[in-house]
Amino acid sequence: MSSAQAASIVDAGFTCSNSHLRAELERVEWLVRAATEVRETEVPAQPEHARQWRQRGVGGIVETVDTILTGTLLEPEARPELQSARERGEALRSRNAASARVAQARGVCLRLERLADYAALEPQDRDLLLLSMLPALDSRFSDLLGYLLPDHRGGWPTLELAERLLAVDGHARWRLRSRLGAQAPLRRHDLLRLPDGRQSDPPPAPRQPLQPDPRVLAFLLGDDAPDERIAAYVRVVGVGGDAGGPTLPPGRLAALIDLLEAQPVQGPGAIIHLAGPAGCGKKMLAATLAARQRRPLLVVERALLELATPGLPAIVLREAMMQRAAVYWDGLDDWMSGRSPPLQHAMRQALADYRPWLFSGGCDDWRHHCRLGRRPVVEVSVPTPDAAQLAACWRDATSVFKPIDPDLDLESFTATVRLPPAAIEAAGATAAALSRLREPRAPFVSRRMLLAAARQLHSGGLSALARRIRARPGWDDLVLPDSRRKALRDLCHHVRYRHKVMAQWGFDRTLMLGRGVSALFSGPPGTGKTMAAAVLATELGLDLYHVDLSQVVSKYIGETEKHLARLFDEAEANSAILFFDEADALFGKRTEVRDSHDRYANLETSYLLQRVDEYEGLVILASNLPRNMDEAFVRRLRFIVPFTVPDRTQRLAIWQRLLPARTPRSDDIDLERLADGIELSGGYLRNIAVSAAYLAAAEDVAVGMRHLSAATQREYAKVGRVFEDEELESIFRTERKQP
């Protein structure tokens, strides 16, 4: 390259990262050329060596070695050819540095410079890294090493080769060797690998190969795919890649931004620990803050802890540097709590080297015994997004496909269907897709599609402890006195307008606990308690789960509490209604402690009381014996709805609903007479209707009074009552209708 061309490059700066990398590799080329020339003068004196190489298929390598760009030198200090090459290489270094400064001032990303700045690489470090890259970029270098070092078989440069190429004297050699120590930048940041040794080993032996880390090499060549060792546990959120916005009040958000922007440029700043419940938007907040610096966010999942080794922290933060990303590390304090000393030391060291913004996330406050060296930890409490913020998330999530029905009260909807922001993003896209498939002509995404999408996102983790009730009855299917129906509708209002009363009207500041809705349905069996719960689920658009007490209650100490914790956590995540049937068995009165069994039974009851208080959804308790329930539960219940045995009018309404329209009926059926004579609750009446239908189906005839009579006798027998013949005759005697 002429001096005029070089000056032109400096004036314009590098146009891309690859042109900069090629120019830096050119410096090593000059040393390689000079070393090859020295070797060429020695090969003729060793004809046997040259003959062996030609027999191995490398014929003509002496003649064409100028184009292969690599080499070695036995005595570099005494060779003027090598000294001249070093001088030219230094001139190239100065030219490249000037051109790099011009390019960076123009906003060109130079990956080698980014790597060198992060790892604080000295000139010798850069040269060692570039030298190690040559065989990976051109396989001819691997062959040439055998020519330059007759005893070498590794295919990679060695420390011995690097010393002879890069060191001008003995002092420089020792300094070069120190740059390959275990704590030196090249190995501390895992930029160079020692294939025959561990990264924690002392400096390599003279003939130990030097190999670039594959991820570092890929990064320098323009590849942004995360390191394969952590790829399954990290993801990059691009600038503007997350929907929604921060969930902090404006004043606190401004203070946090001031703190972050005041971080030291040359040293590590504070770690911002975002504490808040799952799904409150901690990652979204971190991504929004990182975007202020035009940085993406590298999210490190908590599951990476399962693979925790001392080398992983440096790999994770090196990846963040390569992506020029801020970091959100979920459960960072878990890496420092009760872990092995080598892992804790590696974590502190990696955090000390990483300078950009670093966020930690968790549901709880930072464990103050987890020290991170010089980096302080600042805790920021992230509240659950309010209904207005969640409504904005829903609108953003569907806007790409279809807008949401403007008549839908989204704030009320989000107060009922409590999905976290990240889940809303997925549910919104799903709702829009469902709308285009099932309602292609509808201009808006309907509430029904939003509910269907939210239901698809449910994890199903409740199935091990509770059974989902899939029936979707409506108000018309429920036969109750008007006062009971009004109480149930009021209960719906408490769930649907919770956001208005709690958030907008300020009641959340006066209620520390009990912000959810709890109700007791009391009454004899079959009076409609389960159906009423299902009607509420239909009205609110939520899933109803019948808690399986056999799976929750355990004879082993502490297991019941674990099951309850899992039950409520899963229900919270799924916005589910929990239905505890026979609740007096689980919510029974606490007793005087006479032995350890009483103590632990009381602990279970106390824990259940605590979780019901903390649950922000709807909990329904059903009991035939409400007097047996603990008074503390009863006092905290928002609603107590008694269910009674239906009277004659209600029984008639039930009978009118029990026989479907498609069921063939005999002319002798008299619903009025059935309502008068069978004084049972709706559950028993349903059993009679179903049993009579099967009797008629077996005879392949229409359902008639004789089938209902037989079914009634069986149902009364279950409750210990036997009909007299006169009673049966008065109820079920058949009278043919006159034409």
In a nutshell, what does this entry contain?
It contains 32 helices and 14 strands. It is α/β, with parallel strands linked by helices and 739 residues long.
Structure, explained:
- The chain has 739 residues and is an alpha/beta fold.
- It folds into 5 domains: 3-220, no CATH class; 231-381, P-loop containing nucleotide triphosphate hydrolases (Rossmann fold, 3-Layer(aba) Sandwich); 388-453, Helicase, Ruva Protein, domain 3 (Orthogonal Bundle), CATH 1.10.8; 475-642, P-loop containing nucleotide triphosphate hydrolases (Rossmann fold), CATH 3.40.50.300; 648-732, Helicase, Ruva Protein, domain 3 (Orthogonal Bundle).
- Helix content is 50%, strand content 8%.
- It has 32 helices and 14 strands.
- The N and C termini lie far apart (116 Å).
- This is AAA family ATPase.
- It comes from Marilutibacter maris.
- Residues 193-213 are annotated as: Disordered.
- Belongs to the AAA ATPase family.
- Residues 268-405, 515-647 form the AAA+ ATPase domain.
